[in-house]
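subagent[fold] <- orchestrator: predict structure for attached chain, return tokens only, no commentary.
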Amino acid sequence: MRAKLLQRRFLCTNTNQQQWKDWSIKQVTKSNFKESLSELKTHIQNSDFIAISSKKTGVISSSPCNKVLPFLDTPEISYLQSKDAAERFQLLQFVVCPFTLTQSTGSTTKVVAHPYNFHLFPRDELNLGMPQYTFSCQTSQLTALANEGFDFNVCVYDGISYLSRVQESLTKGRHANPSSGYSVNSSSTPSVADEIFTKRIKTRVMHWRDACVTKSKSNGSEDKENPAEALISSLRKLILGAELYGSRPCMSIDVCNERQVQLVVKMSRELFDDLVPLVVPDKGRGVPKAVRVVLTSSKEDKNLLERELQDLEDEQNRKTRGFREVIDAISASQKPIVASNCLNELTFLHSKFLGPLPQSFNEFTCSLRMAFPHILDVNTLLKEISSLRNANNLLALVDMEIPHEGQ
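subagent[fold] -> orchestrator:
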């Protein structure tokens, strides 16, 4: 226990907590991510633009192979350097700051900022065996972070995990929780094998359902079964394969392929108003292994079960996406994104939250534009706008307000 405490103290610094009190920025970790996300989404929707920045385990490599002559310093070369860094290093913090422009006294425009500092650390949150994260660290960068008061302890133990969009698509079907949201392709023409399979499953489900309904009625009319009826009920349950999903009767139907899943789900939805089909995934293979048919007692009970399943799925998706929900919210808002050294920031963003980086700069810009159509680089703005060319402190040029205190 003492060794563990010493380890935790080794990973943190005393100055960092004091800095948090001094900064007017909300610190977000796993423990307060859910409520902070809801608050941030409101600020994003009400904002005029959003600034982003990040802390990383390394920057663009200074090795000789990455040093190029001035006449070779093209956008393509710069992209390849940033791509190399994004694929090798890891994000540890990601700052998101929605800005709102409001009219102040006279002709002055006030800028209202809502900064959030998210602490990140990639891990296999759902114990799915994927992805396996590996990344490099530059000692100079870690030293600089430590000198700034960076709390590695918070990062490792309470950092928010995430999956990129591509990684999430690869985990579909690996979740242990059954899902009712299964789409059925009704345009395909059933084959003879399909009709035989459907008829057999329909007969089996009807016998099971009728037995459950009869059992429910008999329980309502008699307080206690006699031994013979109890034996018959147990045998019927054993033969029909009856189970329970919570307190509701259910039956599992083994399937061999996606087509059989579609047939069972379609049959259950079309022929029975009181049945809810749940697709049960095979966690090891990532494909459906069975369809669990759940019997509800009424229309209200069916609606309640479907809401429970939807809440369960939403919670599962939240855990799967993790911090990427923030990136998805920014993308969905279509608000302008502002950053310093945009190429470096956005290659990291694309690599960690969207998917693998394309090979060429043009492919990268096309892919990025689909998620973030409006991007502004602060360094470019300072060069292009004459009144800002000699500015070395942007905060001195604007009337800034930060409403909430850091937490």
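orchestrator: received. Logging for downstream: The first strand starts at residue 26 and ends at 28. Confidence is low (pLDDT under 50) at residues 1-22.
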